[in-house]
Amino acid sequence: MATGCGGAGGDGTGNGSGTNPSTIDVPTAARDRVEPLADPVAPRLPVTVPSADGRPVTVTSTDRIVPLSGSLNEIVFTLGLGTKVVARDITATFEQAGKLPVVTRAHDVSAESVLSLRPTVVLAEGTTGPAEAIAQIRDAGIPLVVVKPAKALADVGTRIDAVAAALGVPDSGTALKKRTQKRIDAVRKGIPAREEKPRVAFLYVRGSAAVYLLGGAESGASSLLEAAGAIDAGKESGLVKDFTPITSEALAKAAPDAILVMSKGLASVGGLDGLVKIPGVAETPAGADRRVVTVDDGVLLNYGPRTDQVLESLVDQLYGAKR
Prior knowledge:
alpha/beta; 13 helices
């Protein structure tokens, strides 16, 4: 995944003035590595757990784990079971997973690639597809546990518990959940109280595919922005779905003070200069001030063990030296 892209203004540290743009993403150490639990426990198996798609799944071995999303990969590694992971999704970009074979094409799962690695358990998201690939893996007799996709901070602990239960390490799940929540709480305590909250619009852009979308209430970013003391401008302007195509009218109604965009997306449109050329962006307060907040693609919406680092990055970029 691309790292953060530079832009005009700012001091290069991520501590912007609050009026100049900040285009510094999650710190390199946070982006590139996960932090496994210091004292992980051995799995207690077999276990039978409910899969989010409505069926019970019995797991008898965690010797060869295949997590089919970057977020699930991150949780498994952080639980201390990284040595048992034999594959990764293309969005698992952290260092410890870097040498694992990728079993997705774009964002679609290759059932043949998964089965060739002889997994003993597969973890999938509710949004993992295509459905034919999931069915093919199950038809081969591989235990496949579906975990509900994350949309908010409240989902962090639930997802950790679900993965830990499926892998027979509920105690590690409890420990990781407590550690993660403690760190999130610590970041939130440092957020400055402001009468006038910054309005932030989440844009999903992929210049190579001509995809330009404005996030709404179901984009997944609202919870993070609100936890950072900001207003999700798309949601507040009345966008109830996840994303809607960017239009000048929609951006004018959202009227963001800052724009949140993934690092790879920003790079795909030619950086900050390219972003403000998207119709309507330059006419917003954020576009006029060239105020852009970036977070690496691999962690922004994971809602996993590094969510505190994502939240801290957002807070630093939104408030900087004024914290």
